[in-house]
Structure to design on (142 residues):
């Protein structure tokens, strides 16, 4: 007789070290997850365009832009934890600042938030750094 195996919740299969660790692999996972939430969490029906909390949060005047800017700055902070050079951190911070400043403009800023993905740009900067300085963190995508 075979025993039934109950499916486990997703979080039960991920250990805490993978989420909270200070190693480059854990940081890469956290940054990728944050970027996905901010830039690609939902699909606009009819357009099949992926958007995230950055674009949706921009619909809430002031508060939405402040919250999504803070979430974007978290990615910059993780880049600092990885030891990125100051010029790359400045570039990442300017991406977030530019996105926040233009995104704060009513209506036009909301459209801009859908098109300009500062967090995706910052993720690319971090990935380049990790691939160069921590090659063991590379993930083969296919």
């Amino acid at each position: 007789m075979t025993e039934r195996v109950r499916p486990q919740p997703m979080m039960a299969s991920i250990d805490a070290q993978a989420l909270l660790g200070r190693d480059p692999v854990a940081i890469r996972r956290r940054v990728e997850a944050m970027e996905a939430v901010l830039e690609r969490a939902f699909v606009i029906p009819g357009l099949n365009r992926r958007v995230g909390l950055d674009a949706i949060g921009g619909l809430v005047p002031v508060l939405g832009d402040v919250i999504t800017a803070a979430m974007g700055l978290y990615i910059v902070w993780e880049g600092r934890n990885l030891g990125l050079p100051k010029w790359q951190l400045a570039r990442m911070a300017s991406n977030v600042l530019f996105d926040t400043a233009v995104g704060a403009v009513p209506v036009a800023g909301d459209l801009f938030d859908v098109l300009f993905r500062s967090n995706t740009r910052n993720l690319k900067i971090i990935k380049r750094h990790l691939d160069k300085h921590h090659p063991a963190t590379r993930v083969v995508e296919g």
The chain has a mean pLDDT of 87. Strands lie at 42-44, 49-51. The first strand starts at residue 42 and ends at 44.
